[in-house]
Every structure is written in C-alpha cells, then in structure tokens.
Design a protein that fits this description.
Length: 663
Amino acid sequence: MKSVLRFVFLAGVCCAAGWLRGEVVVESPRDYAVVQRDGNGFGTVELRGRVSGTEAVEAKFFREGESEPVVESRVVPEADGFGTTVRLPAGGWYRLEVKAKDGARVEVAHVGVGEVFVVAGQSNSANHGEERQRSESGRVASCDEGGRWRVADDPQPGASGGGGSFLPGFGDAMVRRFGVPVGLVACGIGATSVREWLPEGDVFPNPPTIEGRVRKREDGQWESKGEAFRSFTGRVKVLGLRGCRAVLWHQGESDANQADASRTLPGDLYRAMMGRLIGETRREIGWEVPWFVAQVSYHVPGDEVSAEIRAAQAALWRDGVALEGPDSDAIKGLMRENGGKGVHFSGPGLREHAARWVEKVGVWLEREVEVMPGGLVLDLDARRGVTVVDGGRVVKWRNQVVGSAGQDFVSRDEGRGEAGSGRPTLMKDEMGRAILDFRQQELVCMDEDAFDGLVRGGGCTWVALLRVHEQREGLKDVNSFFGNLRNEGMYEGVWGCFDDDNTVWWGPRNGLSFGRFDGNNPKVAGPKFEVGRYHVVAGRLGSGTGMVRAELFVDGGMAVAGVELPVNAAANPSRMAIGQERDAVQHPGHESFDGQIGRFLIFGRPLGDAELQGVMEGLMKGVKPVVKERHGFWPDAAKDGAMRRAAEMAGAIPGVLRGGRAR
C-alpha cells in the first residue's frame, strides 16, 4: 500500500450537500527521497500525484530557509492525476509545495539531489553489527523495498538483521565531503554465498552452507532460485536509469573456509560467479553501474583470511570488472563483536568500516567525476557532443546540460564567401586531449533568447579552458572567443576577447549607451597569454538590478581585475556564439580569435569564491603542471589548506562518469 502525503482543503462554503472539499495527493517524490545527480549538477525529480476539483497544479521547490522557489512547474491534470519531471539543482533538503487552483495544497518537507549508493552482500553489509548507528548530519536517507524513504538510522530498511551497519557513518562522511544529501539502498542478506545471488537457473557443482535460496537438480548439480537477484535488481531498477552512483559489495565470508569443505567455493569459481553477477546485473538494469568489491573473508580469530577468496576479489579489480573496495579483513581485535571474538563489527568497528569505504569511494568519486556547482546552463566539452564532417571539421557542438535552453552550437555559411570556411577543427593536443581549434571561425546557438538572463540581473559566471595562437589582423584588439552581443542598437550581452598581443579581457555590455569602452561597456583586462600554453579563464558578473561587479579570473580563484557597472533589466542580447560574437553574420571571422578551446561553461548565477576555485581547478586537471611551472597555480591555496577544504565543502557537485564501466 502506497504511503502518500495528503492535505484536505475545506472550501469554507457550506451547502445542502455538505462541505466542499479539494484534495491533493503527492505520490512522488516521497519525503526524504534522494535523486542521483547527473554530470550537469542536476537531478530529474519525478512529480506525480492525484488531484480533484481543480484545473491545474503548481509545484514549487524551495531551499531550506528560503522563501523564493528554486524551481517552479505548472501541471495540467489528466483524469484526476498529474505527472511531470522537474530538473532540480543538486542540493537539499528542498521543500516541495504543491498547490491546486482551488487552494488545496500539500508539502513534502525533504527532497534531495545528491549521491545514491546501493549496498549488497552478506551480514556485514546489512544490520548485523553490535551497535546501531545514527546519521548525525540528518542528510542521509534510506529507501525500503516499497520505495519509502526515511532518515538512515539503523537498522537499515530492506536489509537483514536488526542491529548496526556502516551505512550511517559512510553517508555522513560523504555528505561532509561532497556537500549534498546521500541516499542508501540496503539489500544485504546475512550468511549468503555469492551462489545465492546469481540469476535463477545458474548452475554450480556444490551448494552453499545454507540451501534455502538454491535447489538441487536432477543431474546432481545445484542452481540458484534467483530470489536475491530479482530483489536486488528490482530495487536498483526502481531508482531509474543511472539512478545510483555505484553498488558497494561486501561478501565472501560464506564462501570461504567452511566447516564442510565441500561448501567452500574455490577462488576461480568465486571470480567467475562474481563476474557473472555483475554482468547480469548490468544487463538486467540496462546500464553499466560501477561496482565496488571489498576484500572480505574473515570469520573469527584464527580463521581470519582466505587467500583464494581475496585473490578472486582482487582479480575483479585487476580485470576492470569492478573497483577496489576496502580490505575489511584487516579490521580485527576489538573492532569485532563480543570483545573481538565474533565475525560482525562492534560499534568502533562499524565506524572504522565506514571510514574505509569512504576512503575508497570518496577518492574515486573525486577523481572520476567532475566537480560542478549547481546553476550550470552551458557545458561545451571537446570530449563529447561534437559532430564532425570530413577532416574533423565541426558542424555542431552540443550543450551537455540536458534540458537547458540553447542545446546546439552550429556552423553557419551566412556571410562567408566560401561554404564551410567557418568550421573549427576537432583535434587532439600533444597529450592526446580533445580540443577544438579555431582559426577565425565560429559556432552559433540559434536560440535567440537562451542566454538573455545572464545580463538582466541574475548574474552569471563563465569559465573557459583554452590556449591561444598568434592573432591575425582584424578589428584592432577584438579577437573574440565567445559572445552574444546584439547586432544593432546599443549592443547588450557578454563577450570574451584577446587584444592583438593576446592580452585577455572580457566585458558585459548593458545597452544603455554605445561605445568601447565606457561605464556601460567596460573592458575587464588581465595578463598577456603566451602562445600554446593552457589557461583557465573565468568571468563573474554579480546579481542584482543596481550596480554590480564584473571580475576576471586567470588560473586561480582570485580576481585579477574588476569593475562596476549598472544592470539593464530590459537588455535583449542576441544569439550566443563560440569563436565570434554578433551572431557570426557581421563580417564573420573579422573579430574572431585564433586559438583552441577544450571546455566552455556558463553558470546562470555568480558562483561563490570557493565554488569558482573548485571549477577552475577541475578544468585544469591534466594540464596543471604546464601552468604551475609558469604561474604557480593555487599559490594561496597551497599556503592555506583551509581554502582548499572550503572549496571541497562548498556544495561541489560530482558529475559525469568518464565511461560507464568501472575501471
């Protein structure tokens, strides 16, 4: 039976038939639900419910303590039901308010967009620890078998046992590390062999010690009934496609060193069965979810390790089937229950177990996932979303922010004497990194209004990973690498450029007067760039409709220049272009830059200092040594570790996995 939130609105009008009533029922999201964030720093929240006596439903999501909604959505019900999806920036808890036209309303107090993990295996992945644990952050939630969520205090719903687990401590540490809510789906079953987790009908020669989830065949072999597999994959599928970050697998004790030697699983079979389980899970759920596999075979003092099982688990990492989990066999002594005599963990042992999982998963997440704060509206990445024709000439560069306005940046022949001459080239740099090479060329977003809000008071931040060639002669000191200036009138929008000597600068233009450069059309200039060297450049425009500050950042989180200018809330910029401004139809190439762009981001808000530092450092990964030699990347952060920790804690959002398969 579904658990729903209800609010009954009494219309306040009494008639012969009685009180008139309106009703709104929200079936999704559930209270304390956590949605997995994607590579763009957003999560897709399914909004679904029932309503009576109304023509429309309005849904608003609010951050804690704020009165202005982050996202609003209007839904027209059909057959007394309503449903839509909402893109919500990573964070939480959010408060959802759903209101019908007749006044009926309901709230869901806790909705999160963050990191979701599925935990499976045997007892030490479940609730068999000696001491129940609690979530200290209040931002860790668990999902049960019916899809209901709650704060992740032990015992975890959906797993066997009634004691403690490592999950609350793991979740709290991940919240602290990544600044977003954490959702947990606990599927562990005590005393299970990997044989019991296989799909129905998978055959093996000998049964596990407990035979309840397997059956003997007529030919004398044994097979799995598939119960654990169906339950496990069913709970992962409920989360949706790519609805979790990873599976955390902790199992091995019931396959190692059994009292009846015939029930012990040889290492080669354990490796094969785990490979089968992981592969079939991915096939069943429809995507290649990463798996972490722990090293675990411990029973009691004197029976602390199975070399075969440990070698099989390590082989999964070596072969690229799974990622390396913690070595829990090394957690011994008083970290185990009953004064160190048992197989399960004591209270201190559970906390140590959590810390070891965080060490493995946290490091991987930081390395494999890019750091993007919320509010990202444009992500042009040379590694993905690029369409080329003969010779690598780019005809389309797709925005990686799904659902954002302004999806495609395309080549145009309009205004050019030679068809196709305006197309940049997709190439690899000397280190094998993808990059777009611009030689006075451009790509244009044909959505006229996609980026108007950047200069109308909401503020913005843009960040680019690029390097320059020598600039060719055009309009003096205007070699533009992006912009959306209007084609007539007073020219409003934003643009980033280089002088002819490769001095970098950018400027917002508010359309209140015409000129280069004055108080309404500033030039925020920085250093001169050396040809061929990578730099991360960023511009930030403050929010508000009065005087705001425009700042320039180069290779670090401290502004190198800044000016103030008034905001024109009625500004009407034109299309955004990469490689040239003004829609790329007025003298194309004449004001374009010569250089290479590996990444270009725009956030629809001014990022905080720590957020901006994190983004710039993230883009510099892989090219950091080149810049460090010349510019001393992060000079202040290197002296002050608190700055770096602040960047880590500032709501950073892990994003896209680099390839779906765990490596």
